[in-house]
C-alpha cells in the first residue's frame, strides 16, 4: 500500500475535473430545446384537427412562409372565417377565440421555435429550395392538444450540419448580422 | 460574386448628416447623448467630418462622410483573437456580435476610427422601442460594432433573388446612408459590375483625376472611394498669383 495516498489523490483530482464536464453535459442535455416541456398556450390549438382531419396546408395559415423571413401567425380574422360558422358553445378553447375576436384583443401565443436574436432564419429561402416544413418542425400535423413541441435541436451545430450536407453557405454572415 | 463598394462625391456633400441619422435608425445604433460624447464613447457608424478651408472672410466649410472603409486588407481582422471580425466572400468586413469577446484590439488597429465599442447596454426610450429594425441584431454590452454596408439589406435582396430563382440585379441594393442622401453624394453598388452606378461614376471620375481614398498609402485597399471637391473659385484663379 505504498501508493495508496497517491491513488486517492489522483482519484480526487479526476473526480474534481469530471464535475465541470458533467455539468456542461448535463446543461446541454437538460437545457436542449427538445427536452423542454410543451409550452403553455393561451388557447390549446389542435394542429391535428386542422391538418389531419380537415386537410389544411401549413401555408393556409402561416401565409408568409414562402415569401418572407417569418412564417407568421394568422390574424384572428382568418380563424374567424371558418369559426363564425362553427358553433363555439360548450367548447372552452373555441369560446376563448371568439371572445378574443369580439373584444378585439390579440392572442398572445408563446413562441415554440425560439431562435436567439442574433441569428436570422429565413423561411422563404429554405422552402424555395424544396425543404418541407416537417424537416425542422417535425410532424406538427399529428400534434394535438396541449400544443406544439419542438422536435429538432435547431442549435447552431444543427444548422451548420444541415448547411454542409446540402452545400449551403456556412459564412457567419449568412445568419449572424 | 459581387464586390461591394461605395463612392462618396465630396462635391455634392452638403454636410446635412442625413446619412448619419438614416444609419442610426436603420442599424439600431443607440442614441448618443451629450454625456456620451464627452466620454468619447459615442457610436456613429458613419460620421461627417468637418473642417475649414481658407481664411476668415473667404472661409469655407468642407465635409467628409466617413463610414467603415471596408478595407480589402483590413488591419482590424488579423488582431481579433476569436475571429469575430472577418471578411465575407463579397468583400464586406463583418462583425459577428455573438462571437465578439470585447478585447477592442480591432478598434485600436483601425486607422479610420470607425469601430465602436458598446460600453453599456443600449437603451432606447419606450416611444422608440417599436422603431427598432427587426433585421438587425441589437448589440449588447461588451461587443464591438461597425458599419457593415447594411449587410442585412444585401442578404435580404440575395435571398429574394434566390426565391425568385434569378441573379441579383444591378443596383438592386443600396445602403441606408446612400438612400437617405438628398444630393446623391453617396452611391453604393457592385465594383465588379461595369454597369453599376459606382463603376460608371468611378470610371468617369478616374479620367477627371478626382478619385482618392482616405489613408490610401497604408495599403489596406479601402473600398470606399472619395471624389475630390471641385473648387470653382480656386480653378478660376490665375496660377501666377501663388
Describe the 3D structure.
- The complex is a heterodimer of chains A (177) and B (242).
- Chain A is mainly alpha-helical.
- Chain A contains 8 helices and no strands.
- Chain B contains 7 helices and 10 strands.
- Chain B is globular, with a radius of gyration of 19 Å.
- The model of chain B has no long low-confidence stretch (mean pLDDT 91).
- At the A-B interface, helix 6 of A face helix 4 of B.
The number of helical runs of chain A is 8
Rg of chain B is: 19 Å
Oligomeric grouping of the chains: heterodimer
**If strands are numbered along the chain, what order do they take across the biggest sheet of chain B?**
8-1-10-9
Gyration radius over CA of chain A: 23 Å
Distance between the amino and carboxyl termini of chain A: 61 Å
Please trace the helix and strand order of chain A, writing H or E for each element: HHHHHHHH
Counting DSSP H or I runs of 4 or more residues, the number of helices of chain B is 7
Q: Concise description?
A:
The complex is a heterodimer of chains A (177) and B (242). Chain A is mainly α.
List the defining traits of the structure above.
heterodimer, A: 177 residues, mainly alpha, 8 helices, B: 242 residues, alpha+beta, four-stranded mixed β-sheet, two-stranded antiparallel ribbon, 10 strands
Amino acid at each position: 500500500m505504498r501508493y495508496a495516498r497517491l491513488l486517492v489523490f489522483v482519484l480526487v483530482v479526476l473526480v474534481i475535473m469530471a464535475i465541470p464536464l458533467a455539468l456542461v453535459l448535463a446543461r446541454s442535455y437538460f437545457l436542449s430545446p427538445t427536452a423542454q416541456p410543451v409550452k403553455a398556450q393561451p388557447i390549446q390549438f389542435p394542429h391535428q384537427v386542422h391538418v389531419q382531419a380537415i386537410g389544411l396546408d401549413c401555408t393556409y395559415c402561416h401565409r408568409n412562409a414562402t415569401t418572407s423571413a417569418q412564417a407568421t401567425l394568422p390574424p384572428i380574422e382568418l380563424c374567424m372565417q371558418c369559426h363564425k360558422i362553427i358553433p363555439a358553445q360548450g367548447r372552452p378553447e373555441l369560446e376563448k377565440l371568439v371572445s378574443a375576436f369580439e373584444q378585439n384583443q390579440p392572442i398572445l401565443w408563446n413562441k415554440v421555435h425560439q431562435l436567439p436574436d442574433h441569428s436570422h432564419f429565413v423561411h422563404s429561402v429554405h422552402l424555395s429550395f424544396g425543404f418541407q416544413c416537417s424537416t425542422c418542425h417535425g410532424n406538427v400535423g399529428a400534434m394535438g392538444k396541449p400544443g406544439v413541441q419542438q422536435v429538432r435541436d435547431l442549435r447552431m451545430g444543427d444548422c451548420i450540419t444541415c448547411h454542409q450536407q446540402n452545400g449551403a453557405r456556412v459564412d457567419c454572415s449568412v445568419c449572424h448580422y | 460574386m459581387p464586390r461591394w463598394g461605395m463612392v462618396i462625391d465630396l462635391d455634392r456633400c452638403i454636410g446635412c448628416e442625413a446619412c448619419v441619422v438614416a444609419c442610426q435608425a436603420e442599424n439600431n445604433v443607440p442614441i448618443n447623448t451629450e454625456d456620451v460624447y464627452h466620454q468619447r464613447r459615442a457610436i456613429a457608424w458613419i460620421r461627417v467630418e468637418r473642417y475649414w478651408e481658407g481664411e476668415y472672410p473667404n472661409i469655407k466649410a468642407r465635409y467628409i462622410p466617413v463610414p467603415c472603409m471596408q478595407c480589402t486588407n483590413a488591419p482590424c481582422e488579423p488582431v481579433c483573437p476569436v475571429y469575430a471580425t472577418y471578411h465575407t466572400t463579397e468583400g464586406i468586413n463583418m462583425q459577428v456580435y455573438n462571437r465578439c469577446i470585447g478585447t477592442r484590439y480591432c478598434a485600436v488597429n483601425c486607422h479610420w476610427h470607425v469601430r465602436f465599442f458598446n460600453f453599456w447596454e443600449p437603451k432606447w426610450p419606450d416611444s422608440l422601442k417599436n422603431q427598432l429594425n427587426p433585421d438587425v441584431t441589437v448589440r449588447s454590452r461588451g461587443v464591438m460594432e461597425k458599419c457593415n454596408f447594411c449587410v442585412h439589406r444585401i442578404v435580404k435582396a440575395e435571398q429574394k433573388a434566390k426565391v425568385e430563382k434569378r441573379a441579383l440585379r444591378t443596383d438592386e441594393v443600396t445602403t441606408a446612408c446612400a438612400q437617405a442622401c438628398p444630393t446623391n453624394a453617396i452611391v453604393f453598388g457592385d465594383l465588379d459590375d461595369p454597369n453599376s452606378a459606382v463603376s460608371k461614376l468611378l470610371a468617369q471620375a478616374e479620367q477627371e483625376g478626382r478619385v482618392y481614398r482616405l489613408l490610401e498609402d497604408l495599403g489596406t485597399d479601402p473600398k470606399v472611394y472619395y471624389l475630390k471637391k471641385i473648387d470653382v473659385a480656386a480653378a478660376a484663379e490665375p496660377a501666377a498669383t501663388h
